[in-house]
Predict the structure.
Amino acid sequence: MQALFERTVLLVTGKGGVGKSTVAAALARGARAEGKRVLLVEFESVSRVAPLFGRKEAPTEPVQLEPGLDLMGFDLLYSLHGFAGDQLKVKALARLALANRHVRGFFLAMPAIKSILFLYHLHRLEAVHGPRGDKRWDLIVCDMPTSGFVAGLYGVPTMVRQIFRVGPLATVANDMGALLFDPLRTGLVLVTLPEEMPVLETLELRNALRERHGIDTSAIVVNGVYPELLDHDELSALAGAVDGHAPLEQDDALSGVLWAADVLRGRADRAARLMPELREAVGGRLIELPHLFQRQIPLGGIDELAGRVRAATRERT
């Protein structure tokens, strides 16, 4: 856990609806607070990260959100132009080639083209502007699509090498694989909710990546953990107060409080039962983030979560 922010790339993924964009933003803010220069990359076309910082969308070119923290979005055509320009060496020639709809359609119809271009773009960002390049960024945090996309991403370098066995593209495939599979450079962060089904899917993904590709998860983030407001004895005392010992209007109010407290207690209990298995799966590298009870999380809420992340990275496991 202490080495989480020492990597150059963090891939953040999870089942849809678990709050991975919020977690990616919290990781980026947490790393920045630790003195890192951070680039936050959003993959999805409909931005969920940019609104957290008062922007409508993530631009294709990096833009500064604040000192030490930049934001950019992945755009398929933009990345295709960048790839073609790098391979053809002459950007004007690349633009001319891609202006032909048949050439452009050929590339866009390739299997796994999104995965290939994203990984290529990420590899170039890290090579040119990472710690081994001009040191513009120490860490690139990627808000990835759902877990199925990321599972396929790890097969991209092998697939490209099988198609292009020699030449510059074979070299590119080797470089992409070197970045993706180096645990000191790239870390995988899985996000889940403290509920049975998301936890089960998270563990299945973790096990599948480990068995197929030898990838060990850097951390699991349990997002939206409900607080333990009342223990069982306090709940029993509250139930006793509701049981015919108060005027009707107070009784109704207390009944609502009792119901809400019981729901939170149940969710806290379920989360507590799930934590040991998750913690064991990643050797203790578990980060618990609280449920904030806000529909739209403000930047201050993101910083609260970032503080929890920072505290977790300082704990010895």
Q: What stands out?
A: Residues 4-314 form a domain with the Rossmann fold fold (CATH 3.40.50.300). Residues 25 and 49 are 7 Å apart (CA to CA). The chain is about 55% helix and 15% strand.
